[in-house]
Amino acid sequence: MTGSNSRAMTATLVGCVLAAMCEGFDLQAAGVAAGGIVGEFHPTHEQMGTFFSASVFGLFIGALLGGRIADTLGRKRTLLVSVGLFGVFSILTAQAWDIPALTAARFLTGLGLGGAFPTLVAWVNEHSSPERRRANVALVYGGMPFGGAIVSAVSTLVPSPHWRSIFVIGGIAPLILVPILYRSLDEAWMMRPVVGGSAREPKRGSFLAIFADGRTLPTLLLWCSCFFGLLTVYLLLSWLPTLLQDAGLSKTQAGIAQIAFNLGGALSSLALGELLEGKRRTPSVVATFIAAPVLVFLLSRIPTEFAVMVLVVFSLGGALLAAQGYFYASAANTYPTAIRGVGTGATVAAGRLGSIAGPLLGGVLKGAGQGSSQLLANLVPLVIVGSVAALAFAWRASAVRPAARAADL
Questions:
Q1: Which of 304, 241, 266 is nearest to 32 (CA)?
Q2: What is the tens place of the pLDDT at every residue in 249-280?
């Protein structure tokens, strides 16, 4: 890699990591602002579940449309518009006057967020050297939990009645970032993978093509893994502070636990990204997916020792969020360039369905009177299903890895 290409890669990574941090901040803003929202509007548990899921429903639609648009109209243009939209609508969230208005604003914010992330993944994959693609995608994904940790820290400093300021901060940052991305993302330089000649290149942006050429099984396994993985992640991101406070922790302690969850995810995403490019790839992936259900079970016991509970939450965030980094890195390597945006977008969208279901499920279970321990225990079978699907995908990917590497997919 030449010096100019190296500088372009660095600028690309920095810009994409910052965008992922803004997205992570905004995604978790609703959860950390929940206390103030409840105090002002007094919604039911079901209304809060709908509020938490509104932005994720927008994410689902945005991911499907954004990936396809990025394949056809260009990655950079799609990314800039998406980041700008979720900044504007985040600021508008702070102006909401009741729960329906708040929910609508979060849905619109989700549309912008949904278009941004699959485009980020595709962009980084195509601008990375073959031996750094998985690691760089995981690096960018790691920016999301770092953004979540920042908003969790901000929430401990902002009094609950001032919850609107959280959404203002979450909107201003991406708007400042748009011109930075415009300058740092260089479309002139791109390391495009070789896919065996133009005759084998699928139609650009074709959704059906993601199931062609032996991609049906890995696509379905990825979708299943992402669905159950993000169901768990978003239920916890939305309800963890409430669950921990119901179990007897203070707001500050619950905030510390939320920060630990995100930091665990960010650090583990970075570590797993490096391991995916080395000889320890398989044992690292296996350990991640075995640890996830075990740690959810341990958390369901709600350890009485605060330090132990924080350690469990930190480790659980590491397992669940690092797993998502693995899925997105794998998705970007599963599909050729012409359909990488739509393929990655569809994988993200499948996970977003789980993101919608998770907060709603939490609201239904809380509304049914389930305590924190019982609610978390009910998650364990779902996490096991997701881990089994993920391990099946990893096993298949490992089996075809030599051929895929030869084709440089």
A1: 241
A2: 777 787 788 788 878 877 877 777 667 666 67
Q: How many CA atoms lie within 13 A of 235 on its CB side?
A: 29
Distance in angstroms (rounded) separating the CA atoms of residues 49 and 180: 35
**Which stretch of DSSP H or E encloses residue 56?**
helix 45-73
Neighbours of 339 (CB within 10 A): 28
Q: What's the chain's length in residues? A: 409
- H-run or E-run covering 13: helix 3-32
Q: State whether the Cα torsion 377-311-270-123 is positive or negative.
A: positive
Average pLDDT, the chain: 76
Beta carbons of 231 and 52 less than 8 angstroms apart: no
Query: And the tokens for 379?
Result: 């998650």
What percent of the chain has a predicted confidence (pLDDT) above 90? 2
Could you tell me which of 70, 109, 75 has the C-alpha nearest to residue 92? Answer: 109
- The CA distance from 155 to 165, in Å, is 10
Low-confidence ranges of the chain (pLDDT < 70): 1-9, 67-68, 130, 186-207, 273-274, 276-279, 303, 332, 397-409
Domains by residue range for the chain, with CATH? 3-184+210-407 (1.20.1250.20)
pTM of the predicted model, to two decimals? 0.69
Residue 305: count other Cβ atoms within 10 Å of its Cβ. Answer: 8
- Taking alpha carbons only, the member of 185, 184, 181 closest to residue 84 is 181
DSSP string, 280-335: THHHHHHHHHHHHHHHHHHHHT--SSHHHHHHHHHHHHHHHHHHHHHHHHHHHHHS
Distance CA 153, CA 399 (A): 43
